[in-house]
């Protein structure tokens, strides 16, 4: 699927995906020299500020794989990090200084090994003179070079006479003509199968085999989606290293380039929630509706400069599904790949290959399950990122991301796509956050409702599904007690406000929500006694209506239970939320006087 994605992008004139033999690389600094190879200055390509600071991406010859103790012998062509380009060590340690010298030596050897007709190109000849005349020793004295050293593995390349050396047409032609599998490195064992042709597992075409697969990192600690071991335990029938899973160089380049394009920093086909990085793409691009550009926003791409984009994207997807803009009758598929770091490797958390109709139905079902009565100030739709961050502690998104339980984000995405119950940890995590903050928000109530209803639907439970808004026919003890707490709290608020309209007042919810939602018998008898006292202070009309509300709720309660099960604690929170929303929206005529002041 990644191979096909690359083929589609390569034929798209508006795409900037790298051609075979090349890659797009972030290069923060450019070394500017003249036609005689004299060092002029360092140019900073970075844009933005703070955490939005990023370097420009340039098309450069594809990096060769290098690993092991002799990896320093493999240098990239006309670009690399400062150890190769300038012989600058990453630290003052003797071993790093020695390594940097070896890396610089390899870079110069690779440069001088170019054919004479390529070296004689004026711009490339200027780079050769830059090294022959030892002009490279002047670069570390430039002020910008200290900024370069602060970036681990900072890449550099050259500008000659105002043009990137790698953009030289004759050099591009040379690179494209030398595309071939990476040769085995010197620390690899030679074996009888080197150079043997095989049938590519991706294309089905017989040809050379790529011995190593390029890096496709999802963060600074990971390397490749496909890593091939050379130990005997992974060999089969004497087919060592890549020959027991042959992939041609063209297919290897296509899938790694396609995945790296999806993983790019500004990609709209990528989202990261918790420890999971998810990429997604469509098998065929449809002219009527670009689903790729909206799915990411549905799940959680929220830039600070456009916080409403997620809501707009959800509406767009739902409208496209209901209006017929999506080509739902076609067999076009949508791919979703979830990746997580695992030591230095990458784990495939999930891989979904679903038809567009199934994807649209899954998204619609997800938002239908989350639908709940809400205030006009609350947004109608919430992205997955906002949902997950609402149930963890943290002052900002970075802190919340760290506190998000491992694997939870990936499991929720799977549940959305498969239409299965949400992960078992989601509901208790939400309840814990409510108890800690003693606040049932619109988002948390929606999560609890979705968890309960999906579980009941999937396991065909006899328990009644939770409604979108207040349901007076719901006789569940947890739901009823949640409603009761809300009504008693309302009586308390108005009674206190009547006596002391100024200042912050602690309510029974603020003080005892945890006990009320887990062990009702310990607190509700006292709540009822105090409730009668608070009601006596209210106006006759309000007192009568609140008493009727309490009587209707208590009609379904014979005893206060000693303990509420986890699912009933969820219904308790929803009952409290539904009752409060009914007061706010005026669906129930509990009040007979103006309630716009003070208490709410």
Helical coverage, percent range: 40-55%
**What is the molecular shape?**
elongated
Strand content: 5-15%
Over the alpha carbons, how many angstroms does the gyration radius reach? Answer: 32 Å
Gap from first CA to last CA: 54 Å
Mean pLDDT: 86
Structural class category = alpha+beta
Would you identify the regions where 5 or more consecutive residues have pLDDT less than 50? 587-600
Quickly count the helices.
Answer: 21
Number of strands: 13
Biggest β-sheet description: 5 strands, mixed
Describe the structure in your own words.
The protein has helices spanning 2-10, 82-86, 94-112, 116-119, 122-132, 144-149, 169-177, 249-263, 292-299, 309-323, 356-370, 384-389, 397-403, 408-418, 426-437, 442-458, 477-499, 508-518, 524-535, 540-554, 566-585, and strands spanning 22-26, 29-33, 39-44, 57-61, 79-81, 155-160, 163-164, 198-199, 206-207, 270-273, 276-282, 333-342, 345-355. The chain is of the alpha+beta class and 600 residues long. Strands 2, 3, 5, 6 and 7 form a 5-stranded mixed beta sheet that branches. Strands 10-11-12-13 form a 4-stranded antiparallel beta sheet, sandwiched between helices. Strands 1-4 form a two-stranded antiparallel ribbon. Helix 17 (477-499) crosses helix 19. The longest helix has 23 residues, at 477-499. The two termini are 54 Å apart.
